[in-house]
Amino acid sequence: MEEKQKQGSKEREALDAVPFSSPSARSRSPAIVPTSRDCKYYVIKGRKKAVIFNHYTFDNEEPCLMERHGTQQDVEAITTTFKSLNWEVDLHTDLPTLEIRRTI
């Protein structure tokens, strides 16, 4: 049992980023990135896409969550940055939890 735990731990350490756990993510392997873990920059080839979730207003589920002023400026800055690097930007605003899960 201990041997399996050690091996699992070593495998996780080898990954730069561990995929989040969702039904669709569980069936996929982590992306292979042609860059070593300690490099200063990532080598990213092929299609590049940034998915932005902007939450200005929230459902009434949590009354303590107020409108978040300034999120539009954040979206503009992030979008400008990624588009200047020739990335596709996919923006989603004020999605409920279920729609966020479907999008991911």
Low-pLDDT parts are none
Report the order of strands and helices: HHEHEH
What would the average pLDDT be, to the nearest integer? Answer: 76
Major sheet attributes? 2 strands, parallel
Structure explained in plain terms:
By secondary structure, this protein is of the alpha+beta class. Helices cover 37% and strands 12% of the residues. It contains 4 helices and 2 strands; from the N terminus they run ααβαβα. A two-stranded parallel sheet has the order 1-2. Strand 1, helix 3 and strand 2 (88-93) form a beta-alpha-beta unit. It is extended. The two termini are 34 Å apart. The mean pLDDT is 76.
SSE topology:
Layout: H1 2-14, H2 23-26, E1 49-54, H3 71-84, E2 88-93, H4 97-103
Parallel strand pairs: 1-2
Keywords for this structure?
2 strands, 12% strand, two-stranded parallel ribbon, alpha+beta, 104 residues
Report a brief summary of the structure.
The chain is of the alpha+beta class. 37% of the residues lie in helices and 12% in strands. A two-stranded parallel ribbon has the order 1-2.
